[in-house]
Amino acid sequence: MNMTLAALAQQTGLAVLDHLEQSMTIPVVDGLQAQGDLIVIPLALVSVSVRLLPVAGWSHVPPEGIELLRGEAGGNPHTLVADPGTCRWTTLVRDEDGLALGVFDATAIAYLLHPEHGATGCTPGTYVVRRQREQEGRRARLVAD
Questions:
Q1: Which of 10, 24, 82, 94 has its CA 20 to 30 A from that of 51?
Q2: Number of domains making up the chain
Q3: Chain segment 116-139, per-residue pLDDT in tens
């Protein structure tokens, strides 16, 4: 089923800003995707540097979603949402780069929703959610959304 931004916002009770096209079908991607200061990466692509801890402590993603990260100075949240029983989340990961917020494992499409950026969908699979960083001269810094 094609999910629109309006339908996802209504289903989750999470608001999106009026400048976004509400009738837009949310794109569903099976690879890398970025949303503001986050990047979602299939675990297989970074499994050398990101590992689940032996007691990963998975939690099911509830219908209202799980807030993954809030923008600088209390800004807008990035929220992981999925149908009940189709997605689980853990923050118990080891990341050599120190960028991982956690890992989610989905058996159906899961969505990353943000009030300003809209939404993107992830095909079933296991993904690492990381902070993005950018290069400024010789220094790297986290992307601030």
A1: 82
A2: 1
A3: 767 889 999 999 999 876 557 776
